[in-house]
Amino acid sequence: MAVELEFSGPYALLTLNRPDALNALRFSMIDDIAKALDCIERSTARALIVTGAGDKAFCAGADIKELMDRDLTAHRNGVWLGQRTFSRLSTLRIPSVAVLHGYAFGGGLELAMACTFRIATEGARMGLPEVKLGLIPGYGGTQRLSRLVGEARATELVMSGRTINAAEAERWGLVNRTVGSSETAPSPIEIGKAFMSEFVGFSLCASLFAREAVQRGMSTTIAEGLNIEADLSTLAYCTSDATEGMSAFAEKRKPEFKDA
Ligand code: DAK
User: Fold this and answer.
1) Which candidate in 110, 198, 229, 251 is catalytic?
2) How far is it, in rounded angstroms, from Cα 81 to Cα 93?
């Protein structure tokens, strides 16, 4: 299978598994990612970790050979498939992290940008090289990159197709952090698990509302954003997990959240 889904404790592990082609994304793989998201929504997983198989790449982008010789309708449908699937990933009930090692280009970087977080290993290389093929990004890259790194840097990357390294990506805010990549360094999955362990112990209601407040606020005015925060913070207050969290603090014990 070119897309594999496994579960390990509280984690769902999604692996792009086509290392001979640097995990380049075929349309069928995007379909498989959508099916995996259905499965994850029905599971008890509390965090999703996305990685690419092999040593060389997280994902070298859309499969260029498959993109050739398609009519306009097929192209439009392909864009819708990618955009819809990656938007579902960005609003998944549980938080997600993409662990980028080696190359993360084009559609691969767009997949990573739809995750809640991104971690890069030291040797990672990232970019949106579509312009070099006479194309522009089609799976949300022009929109998500500018929200992550700002208009000037996003326009520079999209218009030049330039590749940036992990240090620059971290400085720009494209990745949350960079980790070492020596031979003894942990695997991408272990890196993802270590990072996500900070998030899995909380109420899913609170973590979902927190992410939604930030996400929705990014594309509106500060006044509307404050309204969104007021509504979601009131909703969080009304959950039984909030009652439990505050009671546990008062009673000096560990809270037992029930995601309700
Ligand atoms: N597609 C297909 N095959 C790929 C590939 C890709 N994106 N990237 C690598 N491969 C394949 C190579 O063809 C090669 O296969 P064989 O020749 O061995 O059969 C194998 O993976 C190993 O690659 P290399 O031999 O090239 O490995 P190197 O280490 O020398 O170079 C590289 C690594 C990442 C620098 C190089 O492979 C490279 O430049 N790859 C292409 C990167 C790229 O341009 N990616 C595409 C970005 S554009 C849309 C939908 C989607 C999109 C746009 C529109 N519509 C529906 C409208 C999105 C577009 C993109 O993602």
Assistant:
1) 110
2) 20
**Longest CA–CA separation in the chain, Å:** 66
**Residue 127: which of 99, 166, 89, 96 has the closest Cα?**
166
Round to whole Å and give the CA distance between 194 and 233: 28
**Is residue 218 located within the same domain as residue 178?**
no
Clarify whether residues 165 and 218 are in a common domain.
no
Q: Is residue 259 part of a domain?
A: no
- Which DSSP category does 197 fall into? T
Residue at token pair 């699937």: 85
Give the predicted TM-score (pTM) of the model. Answer: 0.97
Distance CA 52, CA 18 (A): 8
Count of domains forming the chain: 2
Determine how many CB atoms are found less than 10 A away from the CB of residue 88.
Answer: 15
CA of 127 to the centre of ligand 1 (A): 12
Q: Encode pLDDT of 51-71 as tens digits.
A: 999 999 999 999 999 999 899
> Helix %, strand %, coil % for the chain, to 5?
50, 15, 30
